[in-house]
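User: Predict DNA-binding response regulator's structure from this.
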Amino acid sequence: MIKIAITDDHPLLLEGLKNIINTHEDFEVVGMYASAVDLSKNIASDAPLVLLLDINLPDANGIDLVKGLKESYKELKIIAFSVHNELAVINSILNEGADAYLQKNATGTEIIAAISDVLIGKRYICAKTQVILNKKTEAGLKQVPKLTRREKEILTFVAKGMTTNQIAESLFISSHTVESHRKNLMEKFQTKSVTAAVKSAIEYGLIREA
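Assistant:
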C-alpha cells in the first residue's frame, strides 16, 4: 500500500479527501494533520510517501513549508492544493519543489491522477492551473517576494488598521524603523502604498486577512 498523508485546517475537507483517496485499492491514508505543527510532529513517524498539502495553513507560509519539507524528506512527493490561482504563487510553490499543484475544487479523478503521476516521477498540474501557467509572459513568471518575520508582522498590523506609531509601540521599535520597513515592503511588492502591498501579501498567502 502507498502511504499518503493530508494536511488541511478544515475537518470536512480532510475527511472528504481521505474518502476519495481510500477508494483506490493501492492507496492508504496514514496521517491527517490540521496544522503545520501537527504535520511536523507526526510526519516522520507516519512516513507517508505522498503528502497532500494545503498551502494556506494558518500557522505557516506554504512556500516556506514546501521548501522545508523537501529539504528534510528528499523522497516525499508533495501535492500542493490551494484556492489561490495567482501566477506568482503557483510558480513559487513549483519552484520550491512541489510535485503537483491542484485547485481546491479539483475532482476526485484529478486527485487520484495527481497521486499516480507523482509516484512515477511525473509532475501533475490540474487543468485550471495549467490554463493560468499558459498565460505566462515572455519575461517569465513573477516570484512571490521573500519576507522577513518582522515584515510579515508589520504587514499583519497594517492589515488590522494600525498606525505607524501603534505598530512601533507593539513591536518595541521606533517609528522610523517601521517607516523603513514600510518603504522596503512597497519596493518588494512593487506597489505605491503599503495597503496595496498588504492586498498582494494576502493574495499570495503570505499573511491572513484581518
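The radius of gyration is 19 Å.
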